[in-house]
Every structure is written in structure tokens, then in C-alpha cells.
Design goal:
The protein has two domains: 136 residues, 2-Layer Sandwich (Tetrahydropterin Synthase, Chain A); 135 residues, 6-pyruvoyl tetrahydropterin synthase/QueD (Tetrahydropterin Synthase, Chain A, 2-Layer Sandwich). The chain is 30% helix and 33% strand. The protein is built from eight helices and ten strands. Helix 2 packs across helix 4 and helix 6 packs across helix 8. The longest helix is centred in the C-terminal third of the chain and has 16 residues. The two termini are 29 Å apart. It binds nickel (II) ion. The site of nickel (II) ion has 4 residues, from strand 2.
């Protein structure tokens, strides 16, 4: 019986994106402000997930004290460092979230005891920018977005009484609203020159029209898609996925939608 255990870590580091084989103009075009020659920095958050059998004596997959020490030793090489200048890992690749997480994978993978298997790493560069890695050639890049919207849960397929019974307060005729937040992941190979699965600026540009349409609107009254179907989290997350698939292509992974911090919906395409 394999169980997954996840522990969260933090480290703070500086970095800079610069491809020496490109012109300064090309660097600026692709990497923008991240080309600043003195660097900039982030409070990185790393989620380490390991898998293994539960030890019958301790009841644990791995003692979290041990995991903390193992990963902590790896992160000593990163915390309060300049990733380009103070570590050997980014001499010939950009210290992007995708590349950092794969370097951390190699280092943590090699340091874990044989009784556990490194299952997954997620590295947040900011609360809205992250990369997922599970070994192998590709990675996933993730980005969080927000929109504020009013809605009313109401189904034309149900009677007025059934609508009230099903949706309760959310059936209020004038509507109510949420600060919706959603995360988009794009999966694929990491480009050797940029260190990216997808350029954040390109992803933002692909998502921008959808945010523009949804933000500060009443979903049921102003979005044709929700005129005849209830604007539930389930229907919204599928709508976001379908719109984003059209904008980003076949590499779109999962969309995760928070209607409130407590109500979360995931959709990854397919039937
Ligand atoms: Ni940065």
C-alpha cells in the first residue's frame, strides 16, 4: 500500500535570465525585466511529494524530520544565494522555474533513502507562478489568474421550487458574486534556449481576452455560455478549459478553479 507524503519548504534567492548567444535586443524581447543585470529575487516555495510503503512500526512513509533534514541540506545551496552566480547549476541554462525544479529533482532524488520514491515536485516562484516536475524530459508550467464576477445558480431544466431546493441562497434572483481564481498548467518539453515550457508573457496574452470578457460581469446575464446552463464551478471550469484549449493548443494541462477558498474544481479535458 503506497502512500504519498508532501512537505513544503521555502527558500529565497536571486536570479537573472540572459542567453549569451542572443543579442541584447533578443534577450529583452524574450525575458523582459528578468534581464536586469543585477538580478532580482523571489521567495520560492517547494512542495516535495514522496511515495512509499507505510512502515508498520512507525506508521510513516518517511519521518518528516528526516525529509526536512535531507531537503534542507539541498536547499542550503539555494537559500539566500544568487542562482546564476553562487550555484553551479545555471551556467548553461536559465534559472527559470522549470529548470530550477528539475535541478532540485536531481539533487533530492539522489539524497533520498531507498525506501521512498520521489513522486512529485512543485516549485512556486510567486503564489501565481509555478512549475511541476515528475522526472522525465518534460515539465509543466502553471500560472494563476483572477476575475471577479456575479452569478446566480439557476437551471432552466428545474422548476422554481426545485431551483430553490437545489441551490438555496445561490438561487437569489439578483445574484451574488465571487473573486474567482484559477490556475492553468501547460505541459511539454522545456525549450533549451529559453528554459521555458511556455513564456509567461505569451500565456498571459493568450488568457487576457478571456479575463477581459469575464472580469466584473454577471456571468448568467452577460455570458452567452451561461444563459441556458447553471454557472456552477463545474460548468465554469469546463468552459475555462475549453476556451483556454482553443487559445493555448494541445499542451494545455489542468485548469483548477477556486470559486471561494473552500470550493475547488479541476478539469483536464476529455469525457
Ligand atoms: Ni524572477
Amino acid at each position: 500500500m503506497e502512500v504519498l507524503t508532501t512537505r513544503r519548504f521555502e527558500f529565497s534567492a536571486a536570479h537573472r535570465y540572459w542567453n549569451p548567444s542572443w543579442s541584447p535586443e533578443r534577450n529583452l524581447e524574450v525575458f523582459g525585466k528578468c534581464t536586469n543585470e543585477h538580478g532580482h529575487g523571489h521567495n520560492y516555495v517547494l512542495e516535495v511529494t514522496v511515495a512509499g510503503e507505510v512502515d508498520p512500526d512507525t506508521g510513516m512513509v518517511i519521518n518528516l524530520v528526516d525529509l526536512k533534514a535531507i531537503v534542507g541540506r539541498v536547499l542550503e545551496g539555494f537559500d539566500h544565494k544568487h542562482l546564476n552566480e553562487d550555484t553551479p547549476h545555471f551556467r548553461d541554462r536559465q534559472p527559470t522555474t522549470e529548470n530550477i525544479v528539475s535541478v532540485l529533482w536531481e539533487l533530492i532524488f539522489g539524497a533520498l533513502p531507498a525506501v521512498v520514491r520521489l513522486a512529485h515536485l512543485r516549485l512556486y516562484e510567486t503564489p501565481d507562478v509555478f512549475a511541476d516536475y515528475g522526472g522525465g524530459p518534460g515539465a509543466a508550467f502553471g500560472r494563476g489568474y483572477r476575475f471577479a464576477a456575479a452569478h446566480r445558480l439557476h437551471s432552466p431544466a428545474l422548476s422554481p421550487e426545485e431551483n430553490v431546493a437545489t441551490f438555496g441562497k445561490c438561487n437569489n434572483p439578483a445574484g451574488h458574486g465571487h473573486d474567482y481564481r484559477f490556475e492553468v498548467t501547460v505541459a511539454g518539453p522545456v525549450d533549451a534556449e529559453t528554459g521555458m515550457v511556455v513564456n509567461l508573457a505569451d500565456l498571459d496574452a493568450a488568457v487576457a481576452p478571456l479575463l477581459e470578457e469575464l472580469d466584473h460581469t454577471h456571468l448568467d446575464r452577460q455570458q452567452a455560455h451561461f444563459a441556458e446552463r447553471p454557472s456552477t464551478g463545474e460548468n465554469i471550469v469546463v468552459y475555462l478549459w475549453e476556451r483556454l484549449a482553443a487559445a493555448t493548443g494541445e499542451r494545455l494541462g489542468w485548469v483548477r478553479l477556486w470559486e471561494t477558498p473552500n470550493n475547488v474544481f479541476d478539469y483536464g479535458g476529455g469525457a
